[in-house]
Design a protein that fits this description.
alpha+beta, 10-stranded mixed β-sheet, two-stranded antiparallel sheet, 22% helix, 32% strand, globular
């Protein structure tokens, strides 16, 4: 994190007539221990991270402590997970609206029922291997505002039930679309079939869907084999601690 981070505003319109108690909460995790920056390990749900931290803090304080996260990461994904505790849990909406930065590894020529390694993987015939130049052109087309169809395996609610629950039950549902924005999309490495990208996106963007859509635009299939969140707003992965280290130090 920069020495003078540009921290999000909780309520910039607050004045002395309409005092908002949330506006007095310090958003700098270096000064506010209720905001934790955790480097989430793979093969663990975001809820699992929350549960472990809640149990640890509750044992320390001798009472149940409020703990939540500010934007989920899929189990296979790693990286920055912002954990909010105590009064800071009121600020989840503020953190959820922040831009996100990710690094992702995409495998071309194969598809997954979930868009990631957890689904059923299918290999597809590839008649022509995309060139680096073709990849550059395709990535340029995704910059700016785009429409994403939300993945069936997502936490969005459909008629009061999580979409991933309906998908696991084998139920076909029409998934809604949403406008998102891709601010930057950079190719880090390309050795077919493996493509590595770094991207800066608006809140609500599904990187799994972005990976699949890149494959479709290249005339092939694709799915994410790895995903790492490296930044949320001004909060950076370099300032995070691993979950194991947090549990050992507290």
């Amino acid at each position: 994190m920069n020495s003078e981070p540009n921290l999000p505003q909780t309520n910039p319109q607050t004045n002395h007539h309409t005092e908002n108690p949330e506006s007095s909460i310090n958003l700098d995790p270096r000064q506010n221990p209720d905001i934790l920056l955790i480097d989430k390990p793979d093969q663990m749900t975001s809820f699992g991270v929350v549960a472990r931290i809640r149990r640890k803090l509750s044992e320390q304080e001798g009472k149940k402590v409020k703990v939540g996260h500010a934007g989920t990461l899929d189990p296979f994904a790693t990286g920055l997970l912002i954990i909010l505790t105590h009064k800071a849990t009121k600020l989840s909406d503020t953190f959820l609206k922040l831009d996100k930065w990710y690094e992702a590894t995409i495998e071309l020529g194969k598809s997954s029922t979930t868009g990631d390694p957890e689904g059923e993987i299918t290999a597809h015939d590839v008649t022509k291997i995309p060139t680096r130049e073709e990849l550059e052109l395709v990535c340029q087309k995704f910059l700016g505002q785009i429409t994403q169809t939300l993945p069936a395996f997502s936490a969005i609610k459909i008629n009061g039930k999580r979409a991933y629950q309906l998908a696991r039950e084998g139920k076909q549902v029409e998934m809604p679309s949403r406008q998102v924005e891709i601010y930057a999309l950079e190719i880090l490495d390309y050795q077919y079939p493996t493509l590595k990208i770094r991207t800066h996106v608006s809140s609500g963007t599904y990187i799994r869907t972005l990976g699949e859509d890149i494959g479709k635009s290249l005339g092939t299939s694709a799915y994410l084999t790895a995903l790492r969140r490296i930044q949320v707003g001004p909060y950076k992965i370099e300032d995070a601690v691993t979950l194991d280290n947090f549990m050992a130090e507290n």
